[in-house]
């Protein structure tokens, strides 16, 4: 694999730097929209009653945008300052562990994605926390798909052509994903099992590196979330072959789903839920659920979410708990079928 990748590094294009600036501009706009200071935020902060909202990833990503949007809009709904706190590292485990170990009074919240909620527990033997045992889901914060993307100069016009090429090629076919155990990595293994194809995963620390190497010609394809890949697609640098969610993305409506590409019943949506430490009083959880739903239903929030490619509809506390439980069972079946064992 290393030899093949080194050989492909010679084919870097001049477009890599451009993508970085486009992504930074889009993220700056989204962050500015999400952190617009509302009158209620200042009043709540002056009262000294603070809720910590742990965002388990660095500033600027899709989860950060969602978290800062909730902090800005939720403060007004709750009458308390909701203060975002980025605690990145270990695929989100460091930040969400802070939430799991907090006092169970609803004063420390977290944005937990599919990884920290479900898939990491299926791929790691020694999880520092578990959903349901240490964490309580409060509200669904929207979903979005991964995109199967290639360079615009790639010879593959659609997903069936790419899968056919991967089946027929003697040398390895490379796909960039975050670390093994990440939702994108499991999605790739899910795709390989469902399509009966062998694609080699190349693990990266961040999506920016994946994007750069895909544009540079070192990768045949990549799995990138809609918020991450959208700017490069709109700039004509990447071609999206399919979205892994069950439905098409509202911001990229021309991109077909994997199901439409011939893989029946395929669904690998990404999502976030609001969580707190297990044992928080039920009235507090209900209040937080209502505040989150009302916050994300506002016109300002819907604009931010749509721009980020996030599909949102309100869930009750019971619906959120049922959703997380169902996703846990569904992804357990997927990982077993793909032969993924906890390590």
Automatic annotation (TrEMBL):
One Pfam family of this chain: TctC
CDD domains attached to this UniProt entry: PBP2_Bug_TTT
Family: Belongs to the UPF0065 (bug) family.
Name of the molecule in the record: Tripartite tricarboxylate transporter substrate binding protein
Organism field: Verticiella sediminum
């Amino acid at each position: 694999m290393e030899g093949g990748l080194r050989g492909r590094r010679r084919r870097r294009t001049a477009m890599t730097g451009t993508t970085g600036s486009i992504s930074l501009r889009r993220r700056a706009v989204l962050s500015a929209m999400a952190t617009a200071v509302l009158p209620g935020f200042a009043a709540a902060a002056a009262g000294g009653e603070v809720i910590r909202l742990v965002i388990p990833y660095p500033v600027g990503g899709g989860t950060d945008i969602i978290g800062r949007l909730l902090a800005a809009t939720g403060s007004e709904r709750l009458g308390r300052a909701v203060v975002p706190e980025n605690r990145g590292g270990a695929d989100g485990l460091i930040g969400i562990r802070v939430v799991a170990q907090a006092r169970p009074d609803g004063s420390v919240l977290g944005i937990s994605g599919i990884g920290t909620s479900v898939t990491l527990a299926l791929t790691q033997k020694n999880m520092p926390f578990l959903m349901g045992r240490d964490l309580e889901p409060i509200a669904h914060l929207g979903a979005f798909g991964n995109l199967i993307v290639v360079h615009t100069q790639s010879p593959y016009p659609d997903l069936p052509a790419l899968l056919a090429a991967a089946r027929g090629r003697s040398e390895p076919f490379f796909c960039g994903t975050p670390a093994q155990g990440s939702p994108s990595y499991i999605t790739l293994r899910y795709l390989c099992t469902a399509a009966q194809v062998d694609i080699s995963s190349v693990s990266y620390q961040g999506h920016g590196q994946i994007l750069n190497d895909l544009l540079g010609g070192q990768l045949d394809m990549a799995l990138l979330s809609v918020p991450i890949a959208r700017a490069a697609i709109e700039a004509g640098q990447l071609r999206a072959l399919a979205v892994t969610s069950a439905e098409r993305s509202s911001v990229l409506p021309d991109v077909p789903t994997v199901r439409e590409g011939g893989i029946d019943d395929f669904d690998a949506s990404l999502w976030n839920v609001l969580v707190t430490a297990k044992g928080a009083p039920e009235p507090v959880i209900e209040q937080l659920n209502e505040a989150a739903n009302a916050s994300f239903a506002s016109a300002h929030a819907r604009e931010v979410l749509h721009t980020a490619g996030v599909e949102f509809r309100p869930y009750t506390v019971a619906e959120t708990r049922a959703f997380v439980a169902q996703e846990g069972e569904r992804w357990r079946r997927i990982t077993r079928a793909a032969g993924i064992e906890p390590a």
